[in-house]
Amino acid sequence: MTPFDAHTQAGTRPDGLARVEDHRLLTGRGHYVHDVSRPGMLHAVFVRSVHPSAKLLGIDTSAAEASDGVIAVLGAAQLAGRTMPPPNPLLPGLNAPASWLLPMDRVDAVGQPIVLVLATSLEAAQQAAERVFVDYEALPAQADLADGAPRVTTVRHEAGDRVAAEALAVHRVAVRQQQPRVVAMSLEPRAAVAAWSEADGSLTVWLPSQSPARARDDLAHTLGLPKDKVRVIAPDVGGSFGAKASVCPEDLVIAFAARHLKATVKWVSSRSDEFTSAAQGRGAQLQGALWLDAAGRFVHLAAQLRFPLGAWLPFSAVAPMRNAARILPGPYRVGSVAIEAGAAQSNTAAVNIYRGAGRPEAALLMERLVEKAARAAGIDPVELRLRNLLAAQAMPYATPTGESFDAGDYRAALERACARFGYAAERRAQAMRRAAGEVVGVGIAMYVEPCGQGWESARVTLQADGRVRVASGSAAQGQGHQTSYAVIAAEVLGIDAALVSVDHGDTATCPDGIGALASRSMAIGGSAVVEAARQALARREAGEALPIVANARYTAPTEAWSYGCVIARMAIDVDTGRPTIERIVWVDDAGRIISPQLAEGQLLGGLAQGLGQAMLERIVYDADGQLVTGSLMDYAVPRADDMPPIEIESLAVPTDANLLGAKGVGEAGCIGVPAALLNAAADALSPLGEPELEFPLTAERLWRAMQHNSVT
Ligand code: SMO
């Protein structure tokens, strides 16, 4: 019995630890930024560009300013040249111009905010916004991933003897795969409430942020305020998925308006505005080739990865490109590599990290290559993987892209998944169904999931009444920090977790942190809680009187790499192309599991998003840069009845890379699942001549693939 089996199968709880957040959230007592209200606060509406690229010839705000209830209309003139904070300096040499918070003389994307209308009610602000007249002179727009667009950044990984490798090769397979852009469909759209206190010159901003401390730093820098005069509060946050990791222009403009008007200002984005102007994810164009020797060994891997960036660069904008390049070889031993990745801007919404942030791109390209290689070499895809997966004894392993794998038994993951799936029997059943005229395929994907680098902080307070408070620099957006961090502290202290309460998401009451992203909350944030709890315990045992306050800042010595294997079976209706995912078997090693319920929730949630990208979701811009899929009428997200039968097993092999032995878990479902689904669809259609397939795998696309290939 593995940790997930009991409740995945039967819905029971083996461990007795329920999420302490849920009763409050599920009974409507969550408190989101949308719920923040202050007497006399102003409501803000942005007037947004209708052109992907245009000169601003003039903006007439006089009618808006004369409208009922309007207090002010703010634009670039008031913002006096303020620009967005620079992107993450850890990312390779960026060559991108700074972007204005609000545009001076030109717009670069549909949906870009141009001016801000502030009024005493939301309705008044909306009506006045209709009376702002913007005079544009349209300019040609730069399409997404256009050939020859100037590079913002490039990374290269070259290792091994390519010439020698190619001399050994007897097979070469190539793959070209386009990942659609997606939106981070969080239940809670972006929002900000900024309150200026004239009495002490301080600013409080309620913001649904994954990274409150960094948001505070960005706000302080933009407004020229000392950091200790800015407080960011991320209350309950309804999902984030990377899109809320970095501040957007709207956040900073709202804060500016609050100080400018010495007021409290509230902005809540609409679903429509989330489609046009929130940071999007994915969108890469992936190309690669894999060379195999006579024994089926991977002797050389070459790839060119193209990542789109929108009209402006959020803090982590090129992290997906960097990650995809460094992760590409995945769990395999590859003789030599030549990987080149580049990113360029276009006249679209920004692109930022999105659940997986480059990991899904790497797994998609590599696993497609492995699948094609198996077909070319006439070797079963499981057997080919077994020949090339790194052995557990090879750990720790220095990868050809300069990474260091801490631990991992990749073969065990594949073998376990095959055993659970009943691989040999499934292949026999597939052959029988094919013989009977059905279109059915089995797809496999392996993946690795690094959990991020760097530090996180925690404070543990042992109170005189015997209760314990944990404060974390890592803010939660639904992951369940209040449950898991309480469990961690209670275990170190040897007390009941019910005695521990957890604070997060407030820069005034919590220590600084990087935040909840990159699958790092448990491995790194959780280790900071361990460290602080250990210090508090040591001081108590040494005789120190209560209360005891212990602060810890934990830096992970190395990244922990979780991994896993997904096997999916998909049937495609011959007449309509309608795909049915009949079964997903998934073995994941996220290291030590603190809360099986929370870990399973992360895996299933990631799977749902991965399934959405594979089967349903696609942001489309037309050739002129206009957004075609701007609403939920045009953009399909997975619903409960889209979820297939899922069997998850956990290997749960602890790592030495951090104090908990934990690895990443939050992004796994987005990484392996889409690649397995594409491999399953390709396997299903393989008797028809292996048509090229792209996400999303809609019925129309699959049907067309069948028509085209059955007549040729
Ligand atoms: S895409 Mo994640 O929030 O690093």
What are the salient characteristics of this protein?
712 residues, seven-stranded mixed sheet, 3 domains, binds dioxosulfidomolybdenum(VI) ion, 19 helices, alpha+beta, five-stranded mixed sheet, Aldehyde Oxidoreductase, domain 3, Aldehyde Oxidoreductase, domain 4
Compute the number of strand runs. Answer: 27
According to CATH, the fold-level topology of the largest domain is: Aldehyde Oxidoreductase, domain 4
CATH-derived architecture of the largest domain: 2-Layer Sandwich
Number of H/I helices:
19
Number of domains: 3
Please give the alpha-carbon distance between the first and last residues: 49 Å
Round the Cα radius of gyration to an integer and report it: 26 Å
Overall body shape: globular
Could you name the CATH class of the largest domain? Alpha Beta
Structural class, by secondary structure, is: alpha+beta
The portion of residues assigned to helices is 25-40%
Strand order of the largest sheet: 3-5-1-13-10-11-12
Low-pLDDT runs of 5+ residues are 5-14
Question: Which ions and ligands are bound to the chains?
Answer: dioxosulfidomolybdenum(VI) ion
State the CATH superfamily name of the largest domain. Aldehyde oxidase/xanthine dehydrogenase, molybdopterin binding domain
Work out the strand percent: 15-25%
- The residue-averaged pLDDT reads 95
